[in-house]
């Protein structure tokens, strides 16, 4: 299933290939996309893919009167993940998700990420089961037409606010296209943006480039684009071969909506 360009999934080029309670599969194009803060290749769209497919496998386990919202997302990548993607940019990354463990207050989806016949990493998404919201809008199902914006920042509706040093900031512009079906910024878009600022905050000292190894995101409250809405990150440690940064999404009201920790190696 392909999604129209007026949805966050269509804007990022997500395509759902299989959908069942036991197995869901989707893909996303990654090659050729650059981090707007550093202008180097990025794996940030994988966070969008994982949020979608891991959330979908959890969503399919809900009861009739339930809905699901992401509460945690975690990605672990192979050391050469970005190298594989950039070496064959025409090949999309595929995620296969399966349910993990019994359904409870929250469900856990386990994902495997591949690029061609190469394993890129693993990921998990934990989703809370809540009452069905009264204002849910169904995903459009018509065929996508045209092409998405050429740049990653265009697809995510973000713009650079601060880059350089040991901090990085992206503004989240108000744009209904990147909202989910309950009118807030899609959790995958936010997770991808946190990867962008988290990796950029580690800086560039002229050595080997940083390669994101893990990203863990906690969803605390609803996040909406706005004049003051932003993603910001700061370096906790940047050593000779490993680095750690903390990132957060801050809404117009100044409240922290998401937090993340990123680790990288070189």
In short:
The chain has five helices and twelve strands.
Number of helices: 5
Q: What coarse outline follows from CA principal-axis ratios? A: globular
- H/E element sequence: HEEHEHEEEHEEHEEEE
Helix fraction bin: 10-25%
Helical/strand content category: alpha+beta
Q: What order do the strands of the largest sheet run in, or round the barrel if closed?
A: 1-2-4-5-6-3-9-12-11-10-8-7
Structure, described:
The protein is an alpha+beta fold and 266 residues long. Helices cover 17% and strands 38% of the residues.
Can you give keywords for this protein?
266 residues; alpha+beta; twelve-stranded antiparallel β-sheet; 12 strands
SSE layout and pairings?
Layout: H1 8-11, E1 15-19, E2 24-28, H2 45-59, E3 66-77, H3 81-87, E4 93-100, E5 106-115, E6 118-131, H4 152-156, E7 158-162, E8 167-172, H5 187-200, E9 211-219, E10 230-238, E11 242-250, E12 256-265
Antiparallel strand pairs: 1-2, 2-4, 3-6, 3-9, 4-5, 5-6, 7-8, 8-10, 9-12, 10-11, 11-12
Helix pairs in contact: 2-5
């Amino acid at each position: 299933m392909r999604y129209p360009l007026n949805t966050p999934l269509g804007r990022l080029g997500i395509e759902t290939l299989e959908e069942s309670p036991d197995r869901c599969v989707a893909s996303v194009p990654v090659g050729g996309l650059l981090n707007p803060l550093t202008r180097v290749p990025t794996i940030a769209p994988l966070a969008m893919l994982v949020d979608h497919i891991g959330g979908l496998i959890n969503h399919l386990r809900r009861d009739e009167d339930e809905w699901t919202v992401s509460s945690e997302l975690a990605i672990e990548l192979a050391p050469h993940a970005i190298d594989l993607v950039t070496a064959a940019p025409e090949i999309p990354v595929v995620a296969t998700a399966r349910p993990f463990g019994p359904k409870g207050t929250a469900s856990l989806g386990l994902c495997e990420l591949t690029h061609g016949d190469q394993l890129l990493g693993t990921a998990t998404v934990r989703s809370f089961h809540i009452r069905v919201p009264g204002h849910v809008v169904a995903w459009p199902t018509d065929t996508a037409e045209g092409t998405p914006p050429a740049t990653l920042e265009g697809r995510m509706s973000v713009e650079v606010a601060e880059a350089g040093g040991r901090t990085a900031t992206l503004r989240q512009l108000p744009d209904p296209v990147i909202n989910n079906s309950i009118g807030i910024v899609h959790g995958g878009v936010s997770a991808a943006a946190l990867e962008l600022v988290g990796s950029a905050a580690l800086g560039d000292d002229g050595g080997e480039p940083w390669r994101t190894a893990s990203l863990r995101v906690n969803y605390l409250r609803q996040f909406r684009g706005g004049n003051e809405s932003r993603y910001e990150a700061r370096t906790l440690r940047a050593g000779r071969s490993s680095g750690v940064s903390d990132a957060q999404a801050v809404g117009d009201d100044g409240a922290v909506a998401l937090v993340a920790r990123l680790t990288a190696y070189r």
